[in-house]
Amino acid sequence: DGASYDIGYGGLDHVLASGENVNILVLDTEVYSNTGGQSSKATPAGAIAKFAASGKKIRKKDLGMMAMSYGYVYVAQVAMGANPAQYMNAIKEAEAYDGPSLIIAYAPCINHGLKAGMGLSQKEEKLAVECGYWHLYRFNPELEGTDKNPFSLDSKEPDWTKFQDFLKGEVRFASLYKLFPERAEELLQKTEEFAKIRLESYKKLAGKSYCSWFRVGEAWTGTDSTSRNLTRISGCVVFMPLRSASCYADKKTGRGEPAGSIIICTTCRASRSIRDARTMRSEAEVPSDTHQEK
Questions:
Q1: What is the pLDDT of residues 232-255, one digit of tens each?
Q2: Nearest by Cα to 28 from 166, 170, 134, 137
Q3: Residue 136 in contact with residue 88, Cβ under 8 Å?
């Protein structure tokens, strides 16, 4: 529970950093469940808990992202009630991975005050994912160096119109309107804002960090399924893996490119005509936030 994020995090981090083949499952109740429901670093903004009687003011710690920063830890975020198949895939992949693994499972708790009752906790998990409160993903370091992105965002685009209704279905959030009506709206809007910020960071990992580029005019030598999406492009293509923080090619890619070449990003389907190496190098300097995701 909250101890994995907070008072016990030092031990958790030590085990992950060891590189040993250890599998860890965190039941994320977002509070200290075993000691009475105290607030912890797992508690989201807006939630009422012990030591956060007027609603927590700051955002929740992202335990998964911190673990992923090691680069050799298998990490997954799951919710059995939302996607049982994704949950089982994460369990199997973590077990098969020869190294430390961390699975963070959303776990509704009696301290949440589910208005529907704890008997419907699986349904609550489903609602949490549908509205964007909780996100599903897997990070598999074994995919490093392949044509596949190690990070997989498994949850669909949320229906944000359901977010505030989801919060009102749990006493830990809904009681703010009775106890602190003057700040309830502001705090719960922050809860939604922070959930959107977190999702955007996951989208970047899923779609921009490992862009794959194809160039018209050379023989296709790969087996990646994305080649089927390039049937409208005339000529053959060659797989050119490019690891960058955006969908802009780096300077090395531009060297030796013939004038008039076309490259395709298989992540966002953006195409660009390369007039010469000088143009390619100058375009590489364009900030990534000018690129439109599709």
A1: 333 333 333 333 333 333 333 443
A2: 134
A3: no
First vs last C-alpha separation in the chain: 37
Quick one: DSSP state of residue 38? B
Q: CA 122 to CA 125: how far, in whole Å?
A: 5
pLDDT of the residue at 293: 41
3-class state of residue 232 by DSSP: coil
Tens digit of each residue's pLDDT (9 = 90 or more) over 174-196: 999 999 998 899 999 999 999 99
Pick from 265, 203, 258, 261: nearest CA to 240: 265
Other beta carbons less than 10 A from residue 67's beta carbon: 23
* 3-class SS of residue 76: strand
Residues 6+ apart with CB under 8 A from 171: 48, 112, 113, 114, 115
What percent of the chain clears pLDDT 70, i.e. is strictly above it?
70
User: Residue 256: exposed, middle, or buried by beta-carbon count in 10 A (0-12, 13-18, 19+)?
Assistant: exposed
Core vs surface per residue 115-145: b (16+ CB within 10 A) or e: eeeeeebeebbbbbbbbbbbbbbbbbbeeee
